[in-house]
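Lab notebook, page 48
Experiment: co-folding of the full assembly
Goal: obtain a model of how the components sit together before planning crosslinking
Operator: M.T.
Materials (sequences as entered):
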Amino acid sequence: VLAEILIVFAVGLLLGQLLARSGVKPGLSLSFLTAASAAALVFALGLSIGSARSELVGLLPAVGTTSLLIGALAALTSAAAAYIIRGRRRD
Amino acid sequence: LKPYIMPFLLVLSLLGGLLSSLADVQSLGLTESDLNALVEYLLIIFIFVVSVEVGASLTRGTISSLGKDTLLLTASTISGSLAAGLAASLLPGVGLKLSLATSLGMGWYTLTGPLVAASLGTLAGAVAFFSNFIRELFTFFAYPLLKGRLGARNSIALGGATTMDTTLTVVAAAAGRETAALSFMHGALVSILVPLLVSLALALVP
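Observation: model returned without errors.
Model output:
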């Protein structure tokens, strides 16, 4: 799956670039397609998570706490890294 | 679509999926492997559509204006996320592969959740999804608060890949158009790198 994803992503990027350089503006139709495919994907993920609820129920507090820690930590360390790497400028 | 509508739409979709699972999906002939295959197919369709959109948004003007600041900011976002992944691997029950793949999702939960689920299972996928969703939510609240302390430009790194769409709204509102332009370019560059970095973490980390 991982290799397929990278190939599809590279092909899509190239196609998008070709569209942009040929002057075609995908506009709203592509935005709606993105929203629809994202919604379908997240719905399927919800279905998959829900189907495994018997093994997940006892782990929900751990999943929630771990997610909260990783999400907030990744955001904060990124901003702190930017502060250090960009020479402590506060512009 | 207004950028801030997407998170609500996706939360509703997730809730819809969770509620639908209360119906006996096995009576429909759907096994766990069928559901995993469905997630994989939809993931590939989603990746294709998003990559066309990202590719089309990178005009010659955008690419040529990718200055030193965008590159430094992107490098900071990646190194900060990497450091968070390494630190999170010390949490009980979280392996290095899961923590790195999750943190390198850099806020792109619709991609990272299913990608990790396809590789490491549903539970790991749930952690990856919610971690990155929380990063996006956290950015909405933290950006206006932290921009005074860390700087408006440095604080863009909070949002990772989301700074080209959903959290671009809060950057533009709190810091103005010039910072918003940097935010968009940073988000676009990070979005190009996320599929590669998450895939590398899943494939190479033991």
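Interpretation: The CA atoms of residues 98 and 124 of chain B lie 7 Å apart.
Next step: discuss with group before ordering constructs.
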